[in-house]
Amino acid sequence: MNAWFWVFIATYSLNFLLFLSMVFLERKKFTTIVCWTTVLTILPIVGYVFYIVMGNGLSIRTRRMIRKHKLYYLDYNDEIKRTLRSHGGIENELKEDAGLVKCCYNFGSMLCPGNEIKFYRWGHEKMADLKKDLLSAKETINMEYYIFADDEAGQEVMDILIKKAKEGVKVKFIYDSIGCLGAPRRFFRKLKKAGGKVAEFFPPFGHIRLLNLKMNYRNHRKIVVIDGKIGYTGGMNIRNDHIYGTAKKTSPWRDTHLRIEGSGVYLLQNIFLNDWRYTQKENSAPDEYVKQGYFPKVKKKGDISLQVVESGPDLPIQKIKETYIKMITNAKKYVMIESPYFVPDDSFLSALKIALASGVKVGIIIPIKPDHKSIFHVSISYLKELLDLGADVYLYKGFLHSKAIVVDDNKVSIGTCNTDNRSFALNFEDTVIIYSKEFTASYWQSVMEDIRASVKIDQQYYKERRWYTKFLQAIYRLGAPIL
Prior knowledge:
This protein is an alpha/beta fold and about 475 residues long. It has helices spanning about 5-25, 30-40, 45-55, 60-70, 80-85, 100-105, 125-135, 150-165, 185-195, 240-245, 265-280, 285-290, 320-330, 345-355, 375-390, 420-425, 435-450, 460-465, 465-480; strands at about 110-120, 140-145, 170-175, 195-200, 220-225, 230-235, 255, 255-260, 305-310, 335-340, 340-345, 360-365, 390-395, 400, 405, 410-415, 420, 430-435, 455. The protein folds into 3 domains: about 5-55; about 65-100 and about 110-305, Endonuclease Chain A (Endonuclease, Chain A, 2-Layer Sandwich), CATH 3.30.870; about 320-480, Endonuclease, Chain A (2-Layer Sandwich). The chain is built from 19 helices and 19 strands. The strands form 3 sheets. A 15-stranded mixed sheet has the order 4-3-2-5-6-8-1-9-18-16-15-10-12-13-19, sandwiched between helices. Strands 7-14 form a two-stranded parallel ribbon. Strands 11-17 form a two-stranded parallel sheet. The longest helix has 23 residues, at about 5-25. It is globular.
């Protein structure tokens, strides 16, 4: 027997072990296992390398460590519980959406009434308020971003963080290792030298950035909490194209971000501290965070009730996806989705099909200028199925990075989570479920502006596709479960 025979045996033995790992240890979904098995069979050596970099699951040890360092709402100081209850409780709020409220509650999110929320359509608007709020910080600044670039936008915010750290404000900052791959570590060390604390989420082996075996799992969150009273989250990263729309290929860059004041800030603070506790292997008692000012008593600021749902690869349930499905299946009038990518799994797609069959109007807006052409082709493929059933499909004439779902006239979800398998299953994400007719009406006006700036596509759009485009879309769709 020659050497190639043994290479063949070794390669396929290794692939078989990976198959067993996916089934029994990582417990991946059936469609994902089939997809990876196909890749490993057709491209045994290249596929193996690709799987190690992009497909291997979080280790049991990593999952346990994340859970070990989590703060749970039941651990909160009694004062925080009383503050939330003083604004109203789950028993007497929002009877019309009691099922959704209960679902999110069982996913770990308290109902937080008494909030004031502002949304931003453009990065420069968010940046102006964020800088103002950061400069007014008195006690604490907690910040985490998937992308925080060493460019004009990043330097503006970093200079303020350094200034506040030198003034004695407790600054904690988390950046994602893969999302911030283009920013040198010395950029973040400046904050550390000024007295702030900096953490890298899922740092690479030996601090060599290209040797990151967890690069498939990103902390995609964008959270800022100032003095425990003001919170930000949404789609906008700190980078010039997100904030100032400077990239010509994706201009105009339309996004959605939230500024929250009220008891809902507690939930964003909790998510940040969970991530911080994991990166620092910290086990401080919940009361300690109250004493340090991270959970101050918050006064009622408005009339909006909200919940914040988080999800991640450390959890057995894809909580944000399941929340979206609950919203869609509860819809009575319409569902409108804004997302840069539309690569749903079967359960999400089925929920939309059931809504359409039930007489609910469904609209979906994605960008006409994609930043990833392969995902755009997959999105177009999935959207045809819904278009055939009567959905309205729009292509925004620019890059739409907004992650929003509007349901009927009283609910909106806005956060960091795209409607794709990566966000649902692989990334650490958060989304804010907002229960308010007034806010929904306001955001609906924003949606109408996006529709006016979009092209509505129909069956003719698909008929006019070139044969090679159809071929590419069919090939790309085979990889949808692992995109």
